[in-house]
Amino acid sequence: MRISALIKRITLQLLRDKRTLGLMFVAPLLILTLMYFLFNGNTVDPKLGVVGIDEQLVKGLEKTDIQVIEYEKASSDTVIDKDLDGLLEADSGNMILTLKNDDTSKAKALQMKVNQVAAAQVQKKLIQQSPAAGGMATKQIDTKYVYGNKDTVFFDVLSPILVGYFVFFFVFIISGIGLLRERTTGTLDRLMSTPIRRWEIVTAYLTGYGIFAIVQTVIVVIYAINVLDIVLAGSIFDVILINLLLALVALALGILLSSFAASEFQMIQFIPVVVIPQVFFAGIFPLDGMADWLQAVAKIMPMYYAGDALKAVMYKGMGLGEISGDIIALAVFAVIFIALNIVALKKYRTL
Amino acid sequence: MNPSIIVQKVNKSFGKKPVLNEVNLTIGKGQLYGLIGPSGAGKTTLVKMIVGMEKANSGTIHVLDEKMPNLAILQEIGYMAQSNALYLELTGEENLKFFASLFKLNKDEQRTRIAYASNLVNLTADLKKRVAAYSGGMKRRLSLAIALIQDPQLLILDEPTVGIDPELKLSIWNELLRLKNDEGKTIIVTTHVMDEAERCDMVAMVRDGAILASGTPDELKDLYHVGSLDEVFLKAGVKQHENLGVN
Ligand SMILES: Nc1ncnc2c1ncn2[C@@H]1O[C@H](COP(=O)(O)OP(=O)(O)OP(=O)(O)O)[C@@H](O)[C@H]1O
Ligand SMILES: [Mg+2]
């Protein structure tokens, strides 16, 4: 009954705080939408200047969506002046490609295309000279994909992680500040002068904020899948389950860390220390390439397990059975943080 | 009849700073006990320890024959903190209801107790307003109403009448006296207002974490050979400084 009174109060307080509600329910959708458009934007065709390149090759280049502009004479200054991405010059049999390289990924892509087209041209010429060799060389390489397909973009791989991360981030902030406010306004002290038990407070906080976290999680997941059309190869219920578990971890962690903050400002300071590093280990950057000690650090990050599980379900279409390790890890995190919470309240009262 | 509160040889320090020093205090059942003393003397710390919100470094505290801290006893303590700890987003009534449910009052009890407590502090008309829209005095009064909500045997009020107008102050004091006389409640009040101290059965003078003197207001005046508690307060300060000088 004390727990339900506390839950009722927390819910009422949150419902009256329209801005916090907005942050919790609208902000993740906004950011997710923004990311969606950022990553799905049409790529601009690269501009390539050419000097003395034969007609065949120019046609080949144009076919691969390169905007080709022919010049009589050009230098690296031309690249800058005419805002080109690269310059291809024929020089006594050799070809020289000058890349602007202000955007490395763009430069690499252009370089690859030019190489491919040039190689194909050379091959064609060879076949024309000796058709016998053609049989083998003209065979195209068929590409098959284990996960996703040829239309898969970076956002499809990233989005499962983002969905989880936003749930983690917003639940962490709001629950942490919730209990913190109770500390700074003295009401937690006041609560401790009533016959309430510490575990009852922790339970009520977890449930009260948990209700909002559940709603938020469901909204974010449904929005991501139905409106943003993020790939979902597995089951939506598995996705929600993973996110709920992650929300519980964030909730318990937020409440726990709030006991080490003396003010809202200090609570915000936990974001760069605790929340942001999580994203590095969530699977956006491949873990295999990391130093051993970093890989060890990843193992103590809840987002590492959540990211792995979400990617497995949403992108690879795996079932719960295949991600049980991640689920167990998240549950262990939640249990540890909840227990620590009950201990941390000892600061206020030993009973 | 056993005393309501027995504080024995209690020491308390925050970090290295000693705040209470070998405090002994006995408060009889049905007494109205005043704690006076300069700011920072340790009054709030002492009452918080009686409630069980702070832990003593050494010494024991018994309330209603139970060693504190004790959860069951908290049901019988109505505590009003020095700073208003209220939920600003909620209305006055919701605040009262919340605390009433923490003390496990049923719906009927809640209704009658909320009506009684809010009427006592003259807040009945403002119960539906959000506390954020309350004035300072209204918040103080709501705090007092919350301390009374579960009809506890023991009231511990830390500067209950700060920011409350004289008329309401008078009616609150009359009610405290009635609670003591008619219902036999034990009440502890800390105060900086000497005419409030004057109305207590017993007064203890707290200075630098120690109880310098205690007794009825008249006994204290006799002890210091003065005519008012104000003078007792001042003289105790002078005496203490002289003692320090000698040491
Ligand atoms: N949480 C705390 N941490 C450190 N020191 C504290 C803490 N609470 C109180 N103190 C110190 O303990 C001493 C006694 O404080 P206390 O609040 O009990 O005084 P008080 O007699 O109630 O004063 P006032 O009349 O101003 O309310 C003060 O010197 C104060 O600085
Ligand atoms: Mg005080």
UniProtKB/TrEMBL annotation, chain A:
The keyword Transmembrane helix applies. It comes from the Bacteria. Signal peptide: none annotated. The chain crosses the membrane at residues 21-39, 157-180, 201-225, 231-256, 268-287, 327-345. It is found in: Cell membrane. This is ABC transporter permease. Coiled coil: none annotated. Residues 107-348 form the ABC transmembrane type-2 domain. Belongs to the ABC-2 integral membrane protein family. Keywords: Cell membrane, Membrane, Transmembrane, Transmembrane helix, Transport. It is a multi-pass membrane protein. InterPro entries: ABC-2_transporter_component (IPR051449), ABC2_TM (IPR013525), ABC2_TM_bact-type (IPR047817).
UniProtKB/TrEMBL annotation, chain B:
It holds the Pfam family ABC_tran. The keyword ATP-binding applies. Keywords: ATP-binding, Nucleotide-binding. SMART domains: AAA. Residues 5-233 form the ABC transporter domain. PROSITE patterns: ABC_TRANSPORTER_1 (PS00211), ABC_TRANSPORTER_2 (PS50893). CDD domains: ABC_subfamily_A. It comes from the Bacteria. GO terms for molecular function: ATP binding. Signal peptide: none annotated. SUPFAM superfamilies: P-loop containing nucleoside triphosphate hydrolases. PANTHER family: ABC TRANSPORTER G FAMILY MEMBER 20 ISOFORM X1, ATP-BINDING CASSETTE, SUB-FAMILY H, MEMBER 1. This is ABC transporter ATP-binding protein. The lineage of its organism: Bacteria, Bacillati, Bacillota, Bacilli, Bacillales.
